[in-house]
Amino acid sequence: MSRSKIFVTRRLPISLSPLEAVAEVVLWPERQPPPYEVLRRESQRCEGLLCLLTDRIDAALLQASPQLKVVSQMAVGYDNIDVKAATALKIPVGHTPGVLTEATADLTWALLMAAARRVVEGDRFTRSGQWTTWEPDLLLGPDVAGATLGIVGLGRIGQAVARRALGFDMRVLYTAPRPVDKALEQQIRAEYVDLSRVLREADFITLHVPLTTATHHLLGAAQFQQMKPTAVLINTARGAIVDQKALYEALQAGQLAGAALDVTEPEPTPLTEPLLSLPSVIVTPHIGSASRQAREKMAQIAIANLLAGLRDDPLPHCVNSEIYG
Ligand code: NAP
């Protein structure tokens, strides 16, 4: 009997031997993702696909892959995958929740602190030879301790960010489809409000919602108008949750003070992106989960999901578990 085939779309930080033990593994060896045509061609020959958020897994690809038994993504977000099409074809889609929560909350906090205290600007200032003396008003920024933090989306990462805010004695407001339970609210000292109150009252606004049709451009011109002119926006969720053109215009108009983005639309950020011309903007290259431990655990879960799918077992972390119903 011929062995199953698996396509792995990039080198992973752990050994693929658990996959090689049960299947023929085709590994895309390049640093750049496989072109869509390669992805589609390989998927047609495979029973398992281990992919990343840079791979477009659309309905056409899924429908053209009759042998495909499982799509396993090494990420918690899965907006690059047409889950509806996968569900219609009864293909389980796996993701890697939980193991990257703390790493992503850490990067969120690093960006918040860096934007508030102008760390990136300060480094550029030093390297360009402008540091000539101590100055009473050099690179001043807002206080973080005691400020108001607005969290949009209080899921795993949003909650982990709220826990960090406790150490800074911050007032925490959050918006979500519905309030979390009272015990959790008390534990993280967070108050449930609508998005408009988050926008009007927060000194730092941080986004932790998934990218869906409902959250696409959730923050645009009308939302920036409501923000404090001193406010800082942090986005470690997905780029398209923010209307970047409107963000640039709002920053230019002084409707908010700065932004720190780990995710942009598109990715990578083209050097022609107007936001890159603003010193009050920090852009990191989508490194929210980039701690060694988080990436290894993500890869382990992605492999476990894939192996379960090949065996026709329920995936340990499945985004469309209704297919098992
Ligand atoms: P999660 O636990 O599912 O949390 C997302 C939360 O957002 C849920 O509580 C959800 O509420 C809420 N939500 C959905 N729509 C909303 C809306 N319109 N307004 C307010 N809240 C809304 O996911 P997570 O593990 O925290 O991850 C969140 C996102 O972060 C991922 O989807 C991914 O895109 C991104 N991420 C980025 C990086 C990076 O490298 N930068 C790393 C990890 C994750 P319900 O559950 O009630 O719908």
Write up what this structure looks like.
With 325 residues, the chain is of the alpha/beta class. The chain folds into two domains: 4-99 and 292-324, 3-Layer(aba) Sandwich (Rossmann fold); 101-283, NAD(P)-binding Rossmann-like Domain (Rossmann fold, 3-Layer(aba) Sandwich). It contains twelve helices and twelve strands. It has helices spanning 17-20, 36-45, 59-63, 83-88, 101-116, 119-127, 156-166, 182-188, 195-201, 221-226, 244-252, 292-310, and strands at residues 4-8, 23-27, 48-51, 70-73, 93-94, 148-152, 171-175, 190-192, 204-207, 232-235, 258-261, 281-283. The strands form two sheets. A seven-stranded parallel sheet has the order 8-7-6-9-10-11-12, with helices on both faces. The chain has a five-stranded parallel sheet with strand order 2-1-3-4-5, with helices on both faces. It is globular. The chain binds NADP nicotinamide-adenine-dinucleotide phosphate (NAP). NADP nicotinamide-adenine-dinucleotide phosphate (NAP) binds at residues 76-77, 97, 100-101, 104, 152-158, 175-177, 208-211, 214-215, 236-238, 262-263, 286, 288-289. Residues 76-77, 97, 100-101, 104, 152-158, 175-177, 208-211, 214-215, 236-238, 262-263, 286, 288-289 line the site of NADP nicotinamide-adenine-dinucleotide phosphate.
